[in-house]
Amino acid sequence: QVQFVESGGGPVQPGESLKLSCLAEGLLLKRYAISWDRQAPGKGREWVAGIASNGERPVYDDSVKGRFTIPRDNNKNTAYLQMDNLRYEDTALYLCHAPRDDYWGQGTQVTVSS
Questions:
Q1: Which of 2, 8, 103, 91 is nearest to 42 (CA)?
Q2: What is the enclosing helix (H) or strand (E) of 80?
Protein backbone atom coordinates (compact mmCIF):
# COMPACT_ATOMS: atom_id res chain seq x y z
CA GLN A 1 0.00 0.00 0.00
CA VAL A 2 1.36 3.38 -1.01
CA GLN A 3 1.34 6.17 1.50
CA PHE A 4 3.17 9.35 2.33
CA VAL A 5 3.76 10.08 6.00
CA GLU A 6 4.41 13.74 6.75
CA SER A 7 5.88 14.95 10.01
CA GLY A 8 7.68 17.92 11.52
CA GLY A 9 4.88 20.43 11.79
CA GLY A 10 3.94 22.31 14.93
CA PRO A 11 3.49 25.73 16.48
CA VAL A 12 6.22 28.30 15.88
CA GLN A 13 6.69 32.03 16.22
CA PRO A 14 7.24 34.38 13.27
CA GLY A 15 10.81 34.26 12.03
CA GLU A 16 11.45 30.73 13.25
CA SER A 17 12.16 27.62 11.16
CA LEU A 18 10.72 24.16 10.67
CA LYS A 19 11.75 21.18 8.57
CA LEU A 20 8.95 18.98 7.32
CA SER A 21 9.54 15.38 6.27
CA CYS A 22 7.64 13.19 3.82
CA LEU A 23 8.46 9.51 4.14
CA ALA A 24 7.24 7.43 1.20
CA GLU A 25 6.07 3.88 1.94
CA GLY A 26 5.21 1.30 -0.69
CA LEU A 27 7.02 3.01 -3.55
CA LEU A 28 10.48 4.09 -4.62
CA LEU A 29 10.51 7.82 -4.16
CA LYS A 30 13.43 8.22 -6.59
CA ARG A 31 10.98 7.55 -9.44
CA TYR A 32 8.74 10.48 -8.57
CA ALA A 33 8.82 14.22 -8.77
CA ILE A 34 7.49 15.61 -5.51
CA SER A 35 5.64 18.74 -4.59
CA TRP A 36 4.56 20.29 -1.32
CA ASP A 37 1.16 21.92 -1.20
CA ARG A 38 -0.65 23.66 1.61
CA GLN A 39 -4.15 24.47 2.66
CA ALA A 40 -4.88 27.34 5.01
CA PRO A 41 -8.11 27.50 7.03
CA GLY A 42 -11.01 28.53 4.82
CA LYS A 43 -8.89 28.55 1.66
CA GLY A 44 -8.22 26.23 -1.23
CA ARG A 45 -5.17 24.07 -1.62
CA GLU A 46 -2.17 25.82 -3.14
CA TRP A 47 1.08 24.57 -4.57
CA VAL A 48 4.20 25.66 -2.65
CA ALA A 49 7.25 23.97 -4.15
CA GLY A 50 8.32 21.08 -6.35
CA ILE A 51 11.40 19.08 -7.20
CA ALA A 52 12.32 16.57 -9.91
CA SER A 53 12.84 12.89 -9.12
CA ASN A 54 16.62 13.26 -9.27
CA GLY A 55 16.67 16.27 -6.95
CA GLU A 56 17.26 18.79 -9.68
CA ARG A 57 15.27 21.84 -10.76
CA PRO A 58 13.55 22.85 -7.54
CA VAL A 59 10.85 25.46 -8.12
CA TYR A 60 8.99 27.64 -5.66
CA ASP A 61 5.92 29.76 -5.43
CA ASP A 62 6.80 33.45 -5.19
CA SER A 63 5.31 33.61 -1.69
CA VAL A 64 8.02 31.27 -0.31
CA LYS A 65 10.93 31.88 -2.66
CA GLY A 66 14.08 32.67 -0.71
CA ARG A 67 12.62 31.26 2.53
CA PHE A 68 11.75 27.63 1.72
CA THR A 69 13.82 24.88 0.12
CA ILE A 70 12.77 21.39 -0.97
CA PRO A 71 15.64 18.92 -0.53
CA ARG A 72 15.20 15.18 -0.86
CA ASP A 73 17.13 12.08 0.12
CA ASN A 74 16.18 9.23 -2.18
CA ASN A 75 18.34 6.82 -0.18
CA LYS A 76 16.00 7.44 2.75
CA ASN A 77 12.91 7.51 0.53
CA THR A 78 12.17 10.91 2.04
CA ALA A 79 11.49 14.41 0.78
CA TYR A 80 11.70 17.51 2.93
CA LEU A 81 10.48 21.07 3.11
CA GLN A 82 12.86 23.38 4.93
CA MET A 83 10.97 26.48 5.99
CA ASP A 84 12.86 29.51 7.30
CA ASN A 85 11.72 32.94 8.39
CA LEU A 86 8.14 31.73 8.81
CA ARG A 87 5.30 34.23 8.59
CA TYR A 88 1.75 34.27 9.94
CA GLU A 89 0.46 33.62 6.43
CA ASP A 90 2.41 30.34 6.24
CA THR A 91 -0.05 28.82 8.71
CA ALA A 92 -1.59 25.84 6.92
CA LEU A 93 -1.81 22.09 6.60
CA TYR A 94 1.20 21.03 4.50
CA LEU A 95 0.84 18.02 2.23
CA CYS A 96 3.30 15.96 0.26
CA HIS A 97 2.22 15.08 -3.29
CA ALA A 98 3.47 12.91 -6.13
CA PRO A 99 1.76 14.42 -9.18
CA ARG A 100 2.55 11.56 -11.55
CA ASP A 101 0.20 9.13 -9.82
CA ASP A 102 -1.60 11.72 -7.68
CA TYR A 103 -0.47 10.30 -4.35
CA TRP A 104 -1.14 12.52 -1.34
CA GLY A 105 -0.20 12.35 2.31
CA GLN A 106 -2.51 13.31 5.18
CA GLY A 107 -0.54 16.44 5.94
CA THR A 108 1.20 18.03 8.89
CA GLN A 109 -0.07 21.23 10.50
CA VAL A 110 2.12 24.34 10.73
CA THR A 111 0.88 27.18 12.89
CA VAL A 112 2.74 30.48 13.04
CA SER A 113 1.66 32.72 15.87
CA SER A 114 3.11 34.94 18.55
A1: 91
A2: strand 78-83
Model confidence pLDDT, tens digit, residues 37-66: 999 989 999 999 999 999 889 999 999 999
What pLDDT does 36 receive? 98
How far is residue 110's CA from residue 96's CA, in Å, rounded to a whole number? 13
User: Which contacts qualify for 42-49: CB closer than 8 Å, 24 or more apart?
Assistant: 43/92, 45/95, 48/81, 48/94, 49/81
C-alpha 20/C-alpha 108 separation (Å) is 8
Q: How would you classify the pairing of strands 45-51 and 18-25?
A: unpaired
What number is the average pLDDT over the span 32-40?
A: 97
